[in-house]
Amino acid sequence: MKRRELFTGLGPSVCRPEVRRMARLIPNARFRTQDDKEVRFYDDLIKGRQVMVMMMYANCETFCPLATQRMVELHHQALARRMGKDLFMVNISLKPHEDTPAALKAYAQMHKALLPGWTFLTGDQYDVDTLRYTFFSHEHIGIDLDADQHAGSMKIINDKTGRWFHADVFASNRTVLDHIQWSDTPKSLAERLKDNQKLQQQIDRERALYGYRKIA
Which fold has domain 3-185? Predict the structure, then answer.
C-alpha cells in the first residue's frame, strides 16, 4: 500500500470496520410482517441498510404506545424525507404468540404508524428472544427474562459501516436525532464540501442581515 493511500483512506480497508461481521452477529431468522409477508431478518430488512430496531407488543399499555407515538412524531418532524429510502424502522413483537400479522397491522393503524419504511414483525418466540438478547441484553438475568423491560428500547444499526448504536426513545428530539445522525454512513469528500458551501452561504446571509451569525 502506498503511504498516501494510508492517510487518505483510498487504500483497501484501512482502519475501517469489518462490515461482514454484521451478518455473523445478527440472526437471519424468518418473520412475518404486518402484511403477512415472510421475510428474513438480516437478508431482507438489515443488509445494506441503516435501520432503527425496537421491541414492542400490541396490547402493551405502558412504554410501547408511547415509544411508537414518539417515533411517529419524529417521522413527521424530521425523518419523513429519509424513511423508506436510506433509513428504516423495524418493530419486533415481544409476544408473537399473541401478535398475529393482523394484530400488528391494527396496532400500527391505531397509532398511525403505517408509514414508509416502517415494518412490524412477528414470528417464533425463540427467534424473538434471540434478537432481544442480541440487541438489548442487560447482562442481568432478572431484567433480561422480563420482556417488559425491553419495550421501547431502540438500536440503530448501520450494516454498511458495521456499527450499531443504542438510543433512548424518550430522550429529547435533538438527542434521538443526533444518535441517528451518528450512525449515518460517512459522506464523501465532495458531499462534505457541498454541505460546507451551503453552510457558509447561510452564514454570509445572516451576517449581511444581522451583522453576526445567528445561533441556531
Answer: Glutaredoxin (3.40.30)
